[in-house]
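ok so I'm stuck.
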Amino acid sequence: MATLSIPPSVGTYNASVFVLKEG
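replied:
not stuck anymore, here's the structure
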């Protein structure tokens, strides 16, 4: 995962989208 190469806000957004897709 390249979470360190992107802003924390983007990581949080991606995590939220992932949860929504998985949920």
